[in-house]
Amino acid sequence: MDLKIALAGNPNSGKTTLFNALTGSNQFVGNWPGVTVEKKEGKLKKHDGVIVTDLPGIYSLSPYTLEEVVARNYLIGERPDVILNIVDGTNLERNLYLTTQLTELGIPVIMAINMMDVVKKSGDKINIAELSRELGVKIVEISALKGEGIMEAAEAAIDAAKNAKTVPQHTFSGAVEHALAHIEEAAVHNMPEEQQRWYAIKIFERDDKVLEQIKLNGGVLAHIEEDIKAAEKELDDDAESIITNERYVYIASILKACYKKKNVGKLSTS
Ligand code: BGO
């Protein structure tokens, strides 16, 4: 059976450039089931039996845009062997928001930090080893435009598909984790273990599409709702905003440790 690499990233992260460089002319273009969003797949160059699927460019795995729904239906329904998460290295803060969600799916994730030619020119410094450790994913630096690092990224993905597990390193605040633990126990304990956390977070967020899919009985729903309300009361916000905000706080803390902008902190001479 073919090994499936799903290419996931924000719009403008260089996904098309990378997809074309990895697959060349071995591409098949169609539509995602039931929608007019273009689906591109291709065979990885110089490797037999490896298919790269280009997911729509997205900022999040929330259920609000057609692109997000298509991408997440594929990820949770088809479960590719590995996700190659392409990230714009000049825009890490925004791009890592999606990464924090991809690492929760229970699918191995490899990160390709793109636009490294621009990052290097700017003099900004990314501490790749530390970022990799914080996120729990292997990172390969690439320039899709120049074709640098791209096969290394694809090969790291193949390797991860065969050998690696991605375990999310981030934990939410105590009140949220308390609710998530109850949700896992009450609602998703029959699912494969690696999938439970993503579903629990979505249930906490009261994600309509997930609630429709897993059809919990009234008693379980009422029990879970109590836990969600308790967290909302403690943190004085709605569940979905709590999750979003805590992701951004986490990303900011990681970047503080792993990203140094040139010139920041120096006194201006002008
Ligand atoms: C234009 N380095 C640099 N410097 N640029 C890159 C790299 C890289 O490693 N990778 C991609 N780009 P997409 P999505 C453009 O189209 O692949 C550039 O949305 C322009 N176009 O060339 O399309 C890439 O599929 C005019 O830039 O991204 C593209 O994820 C002027 O990033 C852009 C300048 O790449 C987005 C750039 C008419």
Strand proportion = 15-25%
Cofactors and ligands: 3'-O-(N-methylanthraniloyl)guanosine-5'-diphosphate
Report helical residue fraction.
40-55%
Largest sheet: 7 strands, mixed
CATH architecture of the largest domain: 3-Layer(aba) Sandwich
The CATH class of the largest domain, by name, is Alpha Beta
Shape: globular
End-to-end gap: 63 Å
How would you state the average pLDDT, rounded? 95
3D architecture notes:
The chain is an alpha/beta fold. It has 2 domains: 161 residues, P-loop containing nucleotide triphosphate hydrolases (Rossmann fold, 3-Layer(aba) Sandwich); 81 residues, Helix Hairpins (Orthogonal Bundle). The chain has 11 helices and 9 strands. The strands form 2 sheets. A 7-stranded mixed beta sheet has the order 2-3-4-1-5-6-8, with helices on both faces. It has a two-stranded antiparallel sheet with strand order 7-9. Helix 3 packs across helix 11, helix 5 packs antiparallel against helix 11 and helix 7 packs across helix 8. The longest helix has 20 residues. It is globular and about 55 Å long. The relative contact order is 0.13. The model has no long low-confidence stretch (mean pLDDT 95).
From the structure above, extract its key features.
two-stranded antiparallel ribbon, binds 3'-O-(N-methylanthraniloyl)guanosine-5'-diphosphate, Helix Hairpins, alpha/beta, 7-stranded mixed sheet, 270 residues
Q: What is the structure about, briefly put?
A:
By secondary structure, this protein is of the alpha/beta class.
